[in-house]
């Protein structure tokens, strides 16, 4: 893993950055000041590994910019993409109140900046700031509901349906308006899509080609997808 560049934050810059992170937004100036004194701001290059599944859990990350892929490996060594995180997200979402390990791997898939905080300091911050504790519970609840939805999709839909639902979800998380459609602001390979829905790259290739013929998906020269969400939803 490469060594990130550590940056210093002035007070005004810190308040602006924290205001864009859902967990910290809404805190008063005194609470924000307390938070800012504990954080480090770091630059991470594309493809930088942040931690490995099973490593001791010692740091919490808050994304200012860039994107992070969270993934696991099954018993056969196959990659299973859990999620792609972006600006405003925090991770991991477990292990703050016990000595444990990271539940998955994390790697930068787009260079960016993050705020980092040791789990010990984060735990103390949560315990001493009731507002923050409630916000953290809301974040964890949201992630739990998201996981439940994905598990339901795996059970109730075939591979084609899971791919369509994943594309719709990606459009909501990473989409930007583009002539009535949504352009993903993150490049996701067919293999990564396959890893997200539990199938092979060849199967995803075939299904994406059909979706392109249907006019629901278009791939740009930079490998970013343009999605017609309305057409995708009609295919469910």
- Uncertain runs are none
Named CATH topology of the largest domain: Jelly Rolls
Count of DSSP H/I helices: 8
Q: What sort of overall outline do the alpha carbons produce when their principal axes are compared?
A: globular
Distance between the termini: 41 Å
User: How would you name the CATH homologous superfamily of the largest domain?
Assistant: Jelly Rolls
How does CATH name the architecture of the largest domain?
Answer: Sandwich
Query: Could you tell me the number of beta strands?
Result: 13
Task: Give structural notes.
It holds the Pfam family cNMP_binding. InterPro entries: cNMP-bd_dom, cNMP-bd_dom_sf, Env_Response_Regulators, HTH_CRP, RmlC-like_jellyroll, Tscrpt_reg_HTH_Crp-type_CS, WH-like_DNA-bd_sf, WH_DNA-bd_sf. Keywords: Activator, DNA-binding, Transcription, Transcription regulation. GO terms for molecular function: DNA binding; DNA-binding transcription factor activity. The protein contains 8 helices and 13 strands. It is α+β, with helices and mostly antiparallel strands. A 5-stranded antiparallel sheet has the order 1-2-9-4-7. A 4-stranded antiparallel sheet has the order 3-8-5-6. Strands 10-11-13-12 form a 4-stranded antiparallel sheet. Strand 5 and strand 6 form a beta hairpin. Helix 1 packs across helix 2 and helix 6 packs across helix 7. The mean pLDDT is 87.
């Amino acid at each position: 893993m490469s060594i990130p560049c550590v940056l210093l934050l002035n007070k005004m810059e810190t308040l602006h950055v924290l205001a864009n992170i859902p967990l910290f937004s809404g805190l008063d100036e005194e609470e924000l000041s307390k938070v800012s004194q504990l954080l480090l701001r770091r630059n991470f290059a594309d493809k930088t590994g942040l931690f490995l599944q099973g490593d001791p859990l010692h740091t919490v990350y808050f994304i200012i910019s860039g994107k992070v892929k969270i993934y696991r490996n099954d018993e056969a060594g196959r990659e299973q993409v859990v999620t792609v995180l972006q600006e405003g997200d925090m991770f991991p979402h477990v292990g703050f109140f016990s000595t444990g390990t990271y539940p998955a791997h994390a790697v930068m898939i787009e260079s960016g900046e993050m705020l980092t905080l040791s789990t010990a300091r984060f735990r103390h911050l949560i315990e001493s700031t009731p507002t923050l504790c409630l916000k953290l519970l809301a974040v964890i609840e949201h992630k739990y509901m998201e996981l439940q939805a994905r598990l339901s999709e795996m059970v109730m839909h075939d591979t084609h349906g899971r791919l369509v639902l994943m594309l719709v979800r990606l459009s909501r998380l990473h989409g930007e308006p583009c002539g009535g459609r949504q352009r993903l602001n993150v490049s996701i390979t067919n293999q990564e899509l396959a890893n997200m829905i539990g199938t092979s790259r060849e199967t995803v290739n075939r299904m994406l080609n059909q979706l392109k013929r249907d006019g629901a998906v278009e791939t740009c020269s930079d490998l970013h997808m343009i999605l017609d969400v309305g057409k995708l939803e009609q295919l469910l």
